[in-house]
Specification:
mainly beta; 2 domains; ten-stranded antiparallel beta sheet; Jelly Rolls
């Protein structure tokens, strides 16, 4: 069974923003794809990263309309072709620089990709293809001042999704998933503002608690 992620960003992309994705590819994976796109379906893709396991290469590219540009397939720093391994966890880190994206794979700087399209048009982050699970999709600000202030990688979290801005009036949080076993216990915790939503049982839709959290959101 494979999974994917395609999510709208909560705020516009700026210089100094960073994206961090952590997941695991399937044991028979052919590729894992990371996109920073302008839309979920037919939009442009200012940054397309395709880690191809059988070809042992990491392709960097962009797409305008339905047409991809010229592929960049040269090995990364230290002549590494593809540090990601099928069937193992992967980490993809992308920092928005002055005129290029800085890309790290598995905690090691890998390469750069010059802007071919305005990065401010990016509105969607996607993780696609042969992915077994995804447990971290963070959009953070690292310059000039970090937000969240503490940017930790949390392997004990089932899923992490940092935002580079505080929640404000009118923001809505939507969580969907499939429960495993007879009971579900998850916690969504917003540091700094104390907002917590706990789901304790599959059979109970905690209407009162949901309303309470929306009331807390409206007071931020």
């Amino acid at each position: 069974m494979t999974t994917s992620f395609s999510g709208q960003l909560a705020c516009p992309v700026e210089f100094g923003h960073a994206f961090f994705v952590c997941g695991k590819s399937t044991g028979t994976a052919d590729r894992v794809v990371f996109n920073l796109a302008t839309g979920k379906n037919l939009g442009d893709i200012p940054l397309h990263i395709s880690a191809r396991f059988r070809a042992n290469v990491v392709v960097r590219n962009n797409r305008v309309g339905q047409c991809f540009g010229a592929e960049e397939t040269s090995p990364g720093y230290n002549n590494v072709k593809n540090p990601l391994v099928a069937g193992q966890e992967f980490k993809i880190y992308v920092l928005v620089g002055v005129d290029r994206f800085h890309i790290s794979l598995n905690d090691v700087p890998f390469t750069e990709f010059m802007f071919r399209a305005p990065y401010r048009s990016i509105a969607v982050l996607q993780v696609l293809q042969d992915v077994e699970y995804i447990r971290q999709v963070d959009h953070r600000k690292v310059y000039p001042s970090p937000y969240p202030a503490v940017q930790v990688r949390s392997p004990w979290y089932s899923f992490s999704n940092d935002l580079p801005t505080i929640y404000n009036f009118g923001h809505v949080v939507v969580v969907t998933g499939i429960a495993l076993g007879n009971a579900l216990y998850n916690r969504i915790h917003r540091k700094h503002d104390g907002l917590t939503l706990s789901i304790t049982e599959v059979d109970h839709v905690m209407k009162d608690k949901t309303l309470t959290n929306f009331e807390q959101l409206s007071r931020i």
